[in-house]
Amino acid sequence: MRVLVVEDEQLLADAVATGLRREAMAVDVVYDGAGALERVEVNDYDVVVLDRDLPLVHGDDVCRRIVELGMPTRVLMLTASGDVSDRVEGLELGADDYLPKPFAFSELTARVRALGRRTTVALPPVLERAGIKLDPNRREVFRDEQEIQLAPKEFAVLEVLMRSEGAVVSAEQLLEKAWDENTDPFTNVVRVTVMTLRRKLGEPPVIVTVPGSGYRI
């Protein structure tokens, strides 16, 4: 899942990003509304965690722009105000969910995952394919009832492949969904991660390489 965190409190923004990355999400961070507009017009995000009171460009205007672009991106709006009128106003702007500060990180994570599921065709909370069972919320993977321990990027790549439901996913798409914008697009990190993932998932192999196209399960 690709997430953009937009928050002018840099310590909070970085802490949220670090926590989401530990949950196997690819996270970009900006600290003002102008930076947010630049990112959403260039990158495809599943979810934007958007502080409402931002410098340079207000969070409301960022939210409006996301709606105008007609993107499937979902917006989780953050604010220091918990007033009902503020929540209603934020939702009327086009936000998909609303979370007042201070918040529990576990709730933020759950809401981001729930919104991420809404950017694609509805799928069950636990994904199953080719003998693999993946639970994004619990961060658990099983093959034939045996648990498999995966690193965050390995988990992220497997989740993208599972969600594609048999369709071929290119290396570029995996790079976009499982890594942040600071990753070198010419790196071989996708190939290396897929190799390691194949080894951990065991025999017979479930990840198929489609020459010149990408990977599928």
TrEMBL record:
Q: Which SUPFAM superfamilies match?
A: CheY-like
Database matches in Pfam families:
Response_reg, Trans_reg_C
Spell out the SMART domains in the cross-references.
REC, Trans_reg_C
Pull one GO CC term from this UniProt entry. Answer: cytosol
List the GO biological process terms: regulation of DNA-templated transcription
DNA-binding region (UniProt annotation): 124-217
- The OmpR/PhoB-type domain sits at 124-217
Recall the GO molecular function terms of this protein's record: phosphorelay response regulator activity; transcription cis-regulatory region binding
Q: Entry's InterPro entries?
A: CheY-like_superfamily, OmpR/PhoB-type_DNA-bd, Sig_transdc_resp-reg_receiver, WalR-like, WH-like_DNA-bd_sf
Span of domain Response regulatory: 2-116
Alphabetically sorted, this entry's keywords are:
DNA-binding, Phosphoprotein, Transcription, Transcription regulation, Two-component regulatory system
Residues with 4-aspartylphosphate modification: D51
Report the protein's function: Member of the two-component regulatory system CutS/CutR, involved in the regulation of copper metabolism. CutR suppresses a defective melC1 gene, encoding a putative copper-transfer gene, probably by altering copper metabolism.
UniProt name for this protein: Transcriptional regulatory protein CutR
Which gene name belongs to this protein?
A: cutR
